[in-house]
Amino acid sequence: MCGIVGYIGKEQAAPILLDGLSKLEYRGYDSAGMAVYDGEKINCAKATGRLKVLYDLTHGGETMPGCSGIGHTRWATHGAPSDVNAHPHFNADKTIAVVHNGIIENYVKLKKKLTDKGYEFRSETDTEVVAHLLDYYYKGDPLEAVTKVMHRVEGSYALGIIFLEHPDVIYSVRKDSPLIVGRGKTGNLIASDVPAVLKYTRDVYFIENEEIARLSAEDIAFFNVDGEPIEKESKTIEWDINAAEKGGYEHFMLKEMNEQPKTVRDTMNPRIKDDQIVIEELGMTDDEIRAIKKIHIVACGSAYHTGVTSKYIFEGLARIPVEVDVASEFRYRNPILEEGALVLIISQSGETADSLAALREAKKQGIQTLGIVNVVGSSIAREADKVMYTWAGPEIAVATTKAYSAQLIAQYLLAIKFANVRGKLSDTEMAAMLKDMKKLPDQIEMLLNNKERIQKFANRYIAAKDVFFIGRGIDYAISLEGSLKLKEISYIHSEAYAAGELKHGTISLIEDGTLVAAVATQDDLFKKTLSNIVEVRTRGAFVMAVTNEGNTEIEKNADYVIYIPQTNKYFTNSLAIIPLQLFSYYVSVGKGCDVDKPRNLAKSVTVE
Length: 608
Ligand code: M6R
Description:
- The protein is an alpha/beta fold.
- Helix 4 (127-137) packs across helix 5, helix 8 runs antiparallel to helix 15 (427-448) and helix 10 (301-318) packs parallel to helix 14 (402-421).
- The two termini are 28 Å apart.
- The protein binds 5-amino-5-deoxy-1-O-phosphono-D-mannitol.
């Protein structure tokens, strides 16, 4: 996601900011900007596109004098990538400059209140709310204004702030977005991540949630959310730059898997308000939702697998017929799209050629389209009639993990909302489902913490030749994704089968020791899947089972069992996929494969 750098000290700030931002490029961004205090006023430079554009615009920072400043690389969330939306953002008279990483969830409400008080907004961003809110609360004491803002904003944020009236300090705060402070030799720094400061210092403070840092050229002070001073200890960073970019993780895939609790929270929380689902960007009235006759879900790869899952949910909960298509098939099969249909195009990158072509086909036939997209301003996001963003942040590893999890959440929200509006799910039932949904991030975290056990198991399978994934219903959809994860990063042949279909041919491939991963999270299908487990085990398969806590009877028939916490039956994919991702990851690592960039694959498939 966005990157923040700030510097205050004896050297010219702008070149240091640019250098720091360049070390955060891996986080992904589409525009960049800096604000530097020149001794009189705060100057600002912004540029859409690569950091090089900002670099050239400011001659490597040389044209921006001053020894105190904040810089930012923006990964667009609210508002398309543009100079206006690029950070820093200012209050009206440019006496307060702000850079922000995260999402202010209640920005619509705050914006309305500020607008009513006469504040004028220039950008479409959520961040600008912070600049004006600081202005509103600032009565001469910056710390007081900062703490008041922290009490008002909801969501996630790391902020870098300059007050023109207090040019000898920079303020910085965080909640659920990363932020570190570095104590340098010639000055002090803030950054979203360690690589940005490593050239200047290895002496770093990790800022915790709702803590405030106040940096001057010589000093660093810390405060809690009530503005009371707190003590913090610095840590010496031993990592090299490469490891630091990955936040200390060995691979981006591992980092991104570990980001899933946050991704799920970010995609879900802003859309749940008082036990109701509010998807403003959907722009559909209840009558329009009630009028939907059919949903077509079209996507590729893992995004397609999320669609296979949500077919069960839309049909099961909302009783809307759903067809799921692989985009490359959909576009050429002359699909019959009738009035009243809704076409859902799901894509992390928003640039997948086949998915984009499918979207255009639907539009050509006059059918309303909704994109579920991660990259803001991407082609699918721009061309779809409506777009619902997954707030997963940039995904670097080719094998998707966190974007996949976010796509599931977006579709759960849609399906539950549609079911409620169409009278198939009462408010009470919906509230119960949302309660379970809100538990998912912690449950995912718990499963991620179990990684060592999975790693040990995975190490036994690095020489496997064939692996089969089986399941029924939603468990089949999970199997599809588990199988794809394994094959794409470990190069082990694997196939996913609807468990009941196995005996219609594929079971002939099972021999002594063949690994079969059986997913059995659906209570009503549990016994059926158990029979299929017995069938393959009788033929020599080694069975790894993924099932719900409490289903201990499976231990009689499976060789290795992974339990997932109890959740609503429609949400089990979000949990069961975690051990399967970890399994694939550790097999790939064990085999010495290039985990983040598997052979022959590209992150964004922009050709058909
Ligand atoms: O960017 P998209 O979501 O449209 O990409 C779709 C597929 O190419 C993608 O999910 C692919 O299957 C991943 N490599 C799976 O990990």
